[in-house]
């Protein structure tokens, strides 16, 4: 099956091979990068927004923001932290962080899906990446995206 042809049926999709050689070759040809090579910081791409829904994640959010600040990309991403009714100082920890993310505090708990939707609505980037407040990206993670 050619790389860009979607399967006609679900049965066909489920019977696909796990051989990804065509995809790897197409990626390497299109980007000039090796499949396992870290993406260089200067790789072309549009603007990027990272949305982090949080609730009572004061203990881990600063480390996640540190990892985002250390991303090896040409232009830093817009980072939006949506606090879903925390009562442990999570929003304040985000505001104090040197990355200076935009912090939105929900007036009451609505759940992570609503927090993600609020962040996506506010995001200005061409691409929106959703991260969790206990998720550390390697330094080339956003460049790869």
What sequence of helices (H) and strands (E) makes up the elements?
HHEHEHEHEH
Mean pLDDT: 88
The N- to C-terminal Cα distance equals: 25 Å
Work out the helix count: 6
Query: What structural class do the secondary elements suggest?
Result: alpha/beta
Largest sheet: 4 strands, parallel
Strand order of the largest sheet: 3-2-1-4
Which overall shape is indicated by the principal axes computed on the Cα atoms? globular
Helical residues, percent: 25-40%
Strand content: 5-15%
Structural write-up:
- By secondary structure, the chain is α/β, with parallel strands linked by helices.
- It is built from 6 helices and 4 strands, in the order ααβαβαβαβα.
- The chain has helices at residues 10-14, 21-31, 61-69, 90-96, 112-122, 141-144; strands spanning 48-54, 78-83, 102-105, 127-130.
- The chain has a 4-stranded parallel β-sheet, sandwiched between helices.
- Helix 4 (90-96) links the parallel strand 2 and strand 3.
- The longest helix is centred in the N-terminal third of the chain and has 11 residues, at 21-31.
- The chain starts with 9 loop residues before the first helix and ends with a helix.
- The model has no long low-confidence stretch (mean pLDDT 88).
């Amino acid at each position: 099956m050619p790389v860009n042809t979607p399967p006609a049926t679900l049965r066909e999709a489920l019977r696909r091979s796990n051989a990804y050689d065509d995809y790897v070759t197409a990626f390497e040809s299109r980007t000039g990068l090796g499949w396992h090579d870290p993406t260089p910081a200067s790789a072309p791409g549009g603007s990027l927004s990272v949305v982090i829904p949080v609730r009572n994640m004061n203990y881990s959010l600063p480390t996640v923001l540190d990892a985002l600040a250390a991303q090896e990309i040409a232009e830093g991403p817009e980072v939006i932290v949506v606090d879903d009714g925390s009562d442990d100082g999570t929003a304040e920890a985000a505001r104090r962080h040197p990355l200076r993310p935009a912090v939105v505090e929900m007036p009451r708990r609505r759940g992570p899906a609503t927090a993600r939707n609020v962040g996506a609505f506010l995001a200005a980037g061409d691409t929106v990446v959703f991260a969790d407040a206990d998720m550390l990206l390697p330094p080339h993670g956003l460049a790869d995206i």
